[in-house]
Amino acid sequence: MAPSTTVADPQPSSTTDSFNSNAAAENDIRPFFVLHKASSGSKPTATVKAKRRIESPSPKLAKKFEIESVDEEDGQFFSTLRLKVFETVWSKIENTIQDVLRDSNSKVFSGVHNWICESFESIRSSGALSLSEAVRSCPVLSQPSSKQLFTALVLTRNLEMVDDLSTFEDLGLHLKSQGCHVAKLSSMDFSAKNGVGGCLRGLLRQFVMPTIDVADVTILASWYRENGNQKNPVVIIVDDTERCCGSVLSDLILILSEWAVKVPIFLIMGVSTAHDAPRKILSANALQRLCASRFTLSSPAERMDAVLEAVFLKPCSGFTVSHKVALFMRSYFLCQDGTLTSFVKTLKIACLQHFSLEPLSIMLEHFCQDNQLPGEGTGLLTEATMKHAFDLPSVTRYPSEFTICYYFIRGHMLEELLVRNKITRSTCEMLPQFLLDLQRMPNPWSIVVLCIYEAGKFDKLRLLDIFCETLDPEARYLKYFAPSAILNSQSHVSGRNSVIRRVLRKLRDLSPAQLSSLLKSWESLTAEFSEINEKVMELHPFMRNVEAAGQRPGLPTSPKKHASRSHSKLEKELKAMTDKISAVIEFMLREYMKPVETVPFNEILCFKNVDKLQSALLGDPRGRIQSDLLESHSILNCLCCSQRGTTLLPSVHDTSIL
Question: Which of 219, 227, 293, 199 is nearest to 263 (CA)?
Answer without folding.
Answer: 219
